[in-house]
Design a protein that fits this description.
Elements lengths: L6 H15 L4 H8 L3 H8 L7 H10 L4 H13 L15 H5 L5 H9 L1
Helix pairs in contact: 1-5, 2-3, 2-4
Amino acid sequence: MAPEPLLRSLVGSILRTRREAQGRTLRDVAVAACVSVPYLSEIERGRKEASSEVLSAVSSALGMRLVDLLDDARRELVGPATVLDLTASAVGSAHHRDRPMNGSAPQALLRAA
């Protein structure tokens, strides 16, 4: 199993990717977030552990919420959430409709999500 990345590196990479996707400069985002250009650069390179206030300001400057940044980081760490269609297995099959459900099946499906 590969070692997990440092959170500061992961967050910095997400911020840099978002900024570059918007075609914006470090200076532009730093001014909008009220942080210095060198400090934002250090954050993007994963060299500085930014406070939640700074991360919120930079996220906002990039048009996203702090929760969006954290969700992107979560997805990078664990992959996308699995969404199960609970109606798919019960519809269209007489076998499934006629068979009583045991009590653990719905819980097992929910745990997988």
